[in-house]
Each structure stands twice: as structure tokens, then as C-alpha cells.
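Design a sequence for this backbone.
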């Protein structure tokens, strides 16, 4: 039996190694990360909207990164590519870029706690993050006193809560101060620590306040607050800014203090116990839907030792770490993406720096998409609205980019005529290409994101949400692509041009990445329009264009082509990297659906392509490969990729690294583990489609399949012994069950809201 899903250590974390040693809590809006310091603790505090960049007084000409009228150059590039004048193409590409200050996600502050603890040997030290209870704890004994420190982040109350206790009255004493702040406006009054100000770069207003409650004494000295003679202290912290996810100003007129004051007051009124109860109920309602068991024995080990034992091939450690990592991905998404918040960024919500890698932004040439891969199959659709709302907010600035770079114009007659975005986006509507063409151009990135949101309907069947939120975003994206595609005589198909295979290149006409993503979008859009019985004209156009996209081609070597032109003698292969981390031509295998078992020639080419690329890579790329291999049905190979990720790209706090820490790998691998156990992208739902020998016995509860099905399964020796299907919406269930060495296909009519079928196999 599992010991529960707890990441723990028997020693303090190194406060200089944040990305490796901290343990995070979050509620979508706010994040905090702790080290379990005995005498001095550093709590890194984040508020997700606190960004530099965007429109402001200092930057009156902010234009979402767009340069004007660049569509003229784009046209020229199209022409020169068609003429085969690659030299001229290279001269023109620097025009296909954005410009200006992108901004960056910022640290709100560090709260430093200096504890007055007795001298003596520290005993029974343990710091932990209990994923099942969404609770951080640190406890130890020293000088005969037991100290505990706990923390959680409540979504309903929108606060971070901390509790400190000493087993003996009067033995709790500590001071709290803030460091790495954006202003000196830090004060304490009546047991409340106040920190407010303006972000220097853009004047964004922020307000943070922490209410301290204790049975001891509180002393105030400017920004420093000291607690003495106590046995318990509780701190409720919240923060807010005047950011508003609304083009073009991105600011509200709300004083952030009007948000924070009632929040901390309400939290203090409720008190620790009630607040935690409310938090746990909210969290468990999502988290508890899914459980996973991968064997009979589980190792009860600190995470650093667990990781070491994993690397040494200890089977119980392996089962433990794999289930822990799976649930950690779910914990991290619930903690960093909730309705009302910005979506999970490159580090979720956690960030210790004002200059984080890649600005800790919204990268959309794989990363943001990957963040949400596990949202549906691991039963957490509630984490997706931040993504949907964010994409919705990118439409207005995305129209400006469509006009300047593609000459696709929205006007009064047609105000929603097409939006687009490129490799990186900010909360201030940066939708322009990056400032360097070679990573910054990615016209099909939005088509890719449309898969993320369309699948909301596939998994939940929520037609209202489809109609009101998702469909308008998809529709306008489809309108963009229908105007952007051109017919290429030589290739005899409709193409996106120029295209650049993400961060790999070279600039070509109609690469597989773009063609396949647009194809999947068109397919999904037709289904969406059909479900809503709308848009016949646009559907006719899309139906006509769809077969002309022709994305997949197998090259001379038997690999799936990344570039249509790659077998041609004048193809510039000088920059092609055999082991490049992006495998952008396999979008159709995963997360897309068009390379599948019904097209064996494409499946074989995709497998050959993956073999050619090799298994080693950075964290997120390994996570991607787990999902890709899972789709091939090769459980052993998929498992090898999972092992590689855990052995080579995982810090002891179980955060994935690229290098540096990047949370997409956590999310991608968690989704991939589910993809090994359940797939629903083909006609029949498949149970245990990529089961490795190492998981020959196990069970799961609550994984989701397209069509609105929630599935529980138990298997022994690799074979299903029982499976149960709950039908959210009713309708036909088509499912394959592996049993007695063969596969049975079953079709059953299910009824809405019923545990429709119990499937023991004979
Ligand atoms: C992708 C990767 C980069 C990095 C960036 C944030 O585009 O290719 O290596 O991970 O995202």
C-alpha cells in the first residue's frame, strides 16, 4: 500500500538553491516556497500578475511588440521562398520580428523569519509537502521543545496561511522582515505587516499584507515585526495588484488594498482550523478524484533518497516515485491555475527572481500547451479557465499582430476577423513575433493552443462553455488561418509560408509543424461548429481547404519529414540538429490525433523519427517523448523515457529541469503517465495502451476519456481484471479491453450520470 503522497526531507533545504530545494504552495493567484530553515527561514512570495513591461506612462508607445506594416516583408519572403532565392530570404527574415520591452514576471518579496530557538541538537527533523492534504510542514525537536511550522495556500480565501508552534509556552519567538522588495513602503501596525508600492518599470500598483496572530507578544519596529513569549503564531498573507487582463491598458482603477484588506480580515476571522478545512475541501474536490497504485510495496523515503534509490533501480522506490511524481503534477497545476488567475507560466506561479529565465513567460511553441496536457485526462478541467481566459484576452492584441504581419484586418464590418500570436506572450498582450526570427516566428502556435481548449469539450461535453468561451476563440483563429494559407503550385497544396520548425528551422514553405497543427485545428473546428450547429459558410470554406493541407510526408530515409523540401538537393540542412529537443513534426502523433494506428505507414515513420532523434534531451522534451511513445503503444520504450526524466532531469524537490527549472516537464510527464494507462484519441477508448512490465499490477481511479467518461481500472499481470465507467453525459461508449492476451472491443449505450458499466473480463 502507498504511504500517501508526501515529498519530504530529513534536513533543511539550502536557501541558495531555490529551484532545487524549496517546497511550493500556491492557489493560482499566489505562491510561496519554503526551505524549512531551523534558525532562519526564507519564504519566497509570489503574486502572479506582478510583471514588469506593458503599457505605462514610461512606455507610451507600447504596441504589443509589433512593428508596423511588416506584412510587406512577409509577402516578399513568401515570393523569394517560392523562387528558391534563399539568400534573399535570409536578408529579409530580420524584418519578421517584434521589438520593444517584453517585460518579465517578478518576485514579490522574500519574507525572512529569524527564529530564536534553544541551543542544542536538532532531533526528529522533517519537512514535507503532503500532496494528499495540500499542506506544507516542518517540525523538529530542540532543547526539549517541539517546534512545528505549517503552511497552505487557500484558493477560496485567496490567502497564504502559516502557523508556527512551540510545545512549551513562551518558547516561540521570531522576527519577520521583508527582503528583495520593490518599494521601501513597509510598515507594521496592529499586528499587520504592510508592503505596498509601485513596480518601478511600469508603475503597477501592488499591495501585500500579512496579519500576525499570536498568544504571545508582538513588537513592532518599522517594517520588522517580532513575536516573543508565544506558543503559537498564525500569519495570513495576501497580495494583489492593479493588473487587469484587458487590452489595451491592462490596468484597473481598483486600489489593490481594497482587495487585500477584506481578504486578510476574513481569513483572520475564520482562523487556521476553519480556513484549512475550507481549503482542503476545495482542493480535495479536484485532487481526490484520481488515485494511482503501481505495485504492492511502496518505499517510505525522503525524496532525495528516493531519487537516489530510483537511479539505483530499486523497484519499490521506483513505484513510489512514479506515483508521487504523477500526483505532484496534479498538485502543481491545482496550485498554479485556478479560475480568476493568470494561467500557469514557465514556473507555474513560483519565482525567486526579477530576471527569471525566459522572463517566466507564456511560451507557446510547446510550454504553455504542455502545462495543460494533464488537465483533462487526470480529471482537473477546473484548472483550464485561466488558459481559456488568457487566450481570449490575446484576441484583441492578436488582431493588431494579424494586421501588421499578415495584413489580416479586423474592422467595424468584421471586428473578429482573425487573431494570432507567436512564440512568447505576456499578460500585456504581447502577440508579436520574438525579436529574433529564429526562435520568435511561430504562426501555428495558436492553432496548437486551440487543441488545448477544444479538448475541454471533448472531455467534458460542456456545450455551454464551448459556445460561450471556446468556440469564439477557435473561430477567430480559424478565420485567421483561412486567410493566411496560400496555394503553392510546386507543392500542389495549401501552405503556411514562411514557416520555421520551432527553434530548429530552417525557413521553408509549409513545414510539417504548421501544416499539421492547422489541419488538426480545422478538423476540430468542424466538430465544434457541428456540435453548435453554426457557421455553415465558414465550415464550407474549411471543408474545402482541409484536404489541401496534406501535412505528412515520409522522406527517402523513411523518417517523417520535418520540412517538405528536405529531400531536395538545394535544401539547406546546415542547421539541422539530429538530436534537437523540439520534435515539432510529430504534433500529429501527440497531442494531435492524425498519426494513429489506422495509418501504419505514418506511425512507422513517426517511430523511425523518434528513434533517430534519440531519447536524451532536456526535461520538457523528455516529457513530450513520454506522451509520443505512449501513443505508439510501446510501454517499455515509454517507460524508458519516464525513467530518463526522473533520473536525469529531476531536482530533489521533484521539480523538472531543462536546465533551469521549468514546470512544463512536471506537467507533461504527469499527463504522460495517464496516457500510458488510458487513451481516447482514436475510435475506441484503450485501457493500458502502453503498460510497461514494471507496472504489471496496479489500479487507477478517476482518469478521464473523451466523450465524458471517467474510468476506474484494476489490472493484474498486465491484464484488466475489472473496470468501471462513469458516464457524465450518456451516449455510446466504445472501449477496448486487454484480456487473456487479446483485446476485446465493446460498445455500450451509457446513461448520463450513471456508473453505467462494470466490466469484469472473463
Ligand atoms: C522552448 C524551448 C526552450 C525553452 C523555452 C522556454 O521554446 O525550446 O529551450 O524551454 O521554451
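Sequence:
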Amino acid at each position: 500500500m502507498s504511504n500517501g503522497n508526501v515529498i519530504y526531507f530529513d534536513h533543511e533545504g539550502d536557501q541558495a538553491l531555490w529551484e532545487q530545494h524549496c517546497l511550493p504552495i500556491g492557489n493560482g493567484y499566489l505562491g510561496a516556497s519554503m526551505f524549512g530553515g531551523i534558525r532562519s527561514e526564507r519564504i519566497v512570495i509570489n503574486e502572479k500578475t506582478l510583471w514588469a513591461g506593458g503599457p505605462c506612462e514610461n512606455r507610451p508607445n507600447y504596441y504589443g511588440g509589433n512593428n508596423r506594416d511588416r506584412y510587406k516583408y512577409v509577402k516578399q519572403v513568401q515570393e523569394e521562398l517560392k523562387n528558391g532565392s534563399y539568400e534573399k530570404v535570409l536578408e529579409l527574415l530580420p524584418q519578421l520580428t517584434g521589438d520593444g520591452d517584453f517585460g518579465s514576471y517578478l518576485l514579490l518579496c522574500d519574507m525572512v523569519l529569524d527564529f530564536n530557538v534553544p541551543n542544542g541538537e536538532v532531533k526528529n527533523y522533517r519537512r514535507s509537502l503532503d500532496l494528499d492534504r495540500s499542506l506544507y510542514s516542518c517540525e523538529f525537536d530542540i532543547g526539549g521543545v517541539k517546534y512545528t511550522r505549517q503552511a497552505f495556500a487557500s484558493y477560496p480565501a485567496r490567502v497564504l496561511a502559516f502557523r508556527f508552534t512551540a510545545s512549551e509556552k513562551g518558547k516561540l519567538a521570531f522576527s519577520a522582515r521583508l527582503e528583495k522588495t520593490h518599494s521601501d513602503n513597509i510598515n507594521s501596525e496592529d499586528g499587520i505587516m504592510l508592503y505596498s508600492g509601485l513596480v518601478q518599470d511600469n508603475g503597477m500598483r501592488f499591495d501585500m499584507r500579512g496579519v500576525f496572530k499570536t498568544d504571545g507578544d508582538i513588537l513592532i519596529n518599522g517594517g520588522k515585526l517580532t513575536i516573543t513569549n508565544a506558543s503559537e503564531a498564525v500569519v495570513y498573507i495576501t497580495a494583489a495588484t492593479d493588473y487587469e487582463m484587458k487590452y489595451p491598458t491592462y490596468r484597473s482603477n481598483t486600489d489593490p488594498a481594497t482587495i487585500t484588506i477584506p481578504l486578510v480580515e476574513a481569513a483572520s476571522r475564520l482562523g487556521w482550523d476553519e480556513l484549512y478545512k475550507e481549503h482542503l475541501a476545495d482542493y480535495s474536490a479536484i485532487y481526490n478524484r484520481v488515485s494511482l497504485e503501481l505495485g504492492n510495496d511502496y518505499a517510505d523515503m525522503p525524496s532525495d533518497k528516493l531519487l537516489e534509490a530510483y537511479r539505483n533501480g530499486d523497484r519499490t522506490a521506483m513505484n513510489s516515485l512514479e506515483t508521487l511524481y504523477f500526483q505532484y503534477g496534479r498538485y502543481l497545476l491545482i496550485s498554479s491555475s485556478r479560475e480568476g488567475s493568470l494561467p500557469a507560466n514557465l514556473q507555474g506561479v513560483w519565482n525567486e527572481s526579477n530576471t527569471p529565465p525566459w522572463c517566466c513567460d507564456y511560451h507557446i511553441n510547446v510550454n504553455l500547451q504542455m502545462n495543460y496536457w494533464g488537465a483533462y485526462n487526470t480529471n482537473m478541467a477546473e484548472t483550464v479557465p485561466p488558459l481559456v481566459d488568457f487566450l481570449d484576452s490575446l484576441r484583441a492584441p492578436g488582431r493588431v499582430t494579424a494586421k501588421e504581419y499578415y495584413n489580416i484586418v479586423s474592422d467595424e464590418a468584421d471586428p473578429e476577423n482573425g487573431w494570432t500570436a507567436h512564440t512568447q506572450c505576456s499578460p500585456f498582450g504581447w502577440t508579436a513575433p520574438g525579436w529574433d526570427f529564429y526562435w520568435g516566428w511561430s504562426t501555428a502556435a495558436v492553432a496548437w493552443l486551440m487543441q488545448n481548449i477544444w479538448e475541454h469539450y471533448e472531455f467534458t461535453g460542456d456545450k455551454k462553455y464551448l459556445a460561450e468561451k471556446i468556440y469564439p476563440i477557435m473561430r477567430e483563429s480559424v478565420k485567421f488561418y483561412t486567410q493566411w494559407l496560400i496555394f503553392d503550385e510546386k507543392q500542389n497544396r495549401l501552405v503556411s509560408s514562411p514557416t520555421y520548425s520551432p527553434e530548429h528551422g530552417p525557413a521553408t514553405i509549409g513545414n510539417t509543424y504548421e501544416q499539421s497543427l492547422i489541419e488538426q485545428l480545422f478538423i476540430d473546428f468542424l466538430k465544434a461548429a457541428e456540435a453548435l450547429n453554426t457557421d455553415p459558410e465558414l465550415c464550407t470554406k474549411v471543408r474545402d481547404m482541409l484536404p489541401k493541407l496534406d501535412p505528412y510526408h515520409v522522406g527517402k530515409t523513411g523518417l517523417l519529414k520535418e520540412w517538405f523540401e528536405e529531400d531536395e538537393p538545394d535544401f539547406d540542412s546546415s542547421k539541422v540538429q539530429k538530436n534537437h529537443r523540439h520534435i515539432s513534426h510529430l504534433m500529429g502523433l501527440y497531442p494531435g490525433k492524425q498519426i494513429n494506428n489506422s495509418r501504419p505507414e505514418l506511425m512507422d515513420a513517426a517511430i523511425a523519427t523518434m528513434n533517430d532523434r534519440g531519447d536524451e534531451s532536456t526535461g520538457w522534451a523528455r516529457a513530450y517523448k513520454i506522451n509520443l511513445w505512449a501513443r505508439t503503444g510501446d510501454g517499455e520504450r515509454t517507460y524508458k523515457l519516464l525513467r530518463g526524466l526522473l533520473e536525469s532531469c529531476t531536482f530533489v524537490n521533484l521539480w523538472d529541469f531543462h536546465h533551469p527549472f521549468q514546470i512544463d516537464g512536471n506537467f507533461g510527464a504527469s499527463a504522460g503517465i495517464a496516457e500510458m494507462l488510458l487513451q481516447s484519441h482514436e475510435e475506441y477508448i484503450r485501457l493500458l495502451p502502453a503498460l510497461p512490465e514494471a507496472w504489471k499490477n496496479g489500479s487507477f481511479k478517476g482518469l478521464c476519456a473523451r466523450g465524458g467518461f471517467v474510468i476506474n481500472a484494476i489490472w493484474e499481470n498486465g491484464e484488466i481484471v475489472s473496470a468501471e465507467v462513469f458516464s457524465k453525459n450518456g451516449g455510446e461508449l466504445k472501449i477496448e479491453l486487454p484480456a487473456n492476451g487479446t483485446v476485446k472491443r465493446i460498445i455500450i449505450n451509457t446513461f448520463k450520470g450513471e456508473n453505467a458499466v462494470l466490466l469484469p473480463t472473463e
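The pocket of alpha-L-fucopyranose is lined by residues 346, 358, 363, 365-367, 503, 581-582, 658, 662 (CB under 6 Å).
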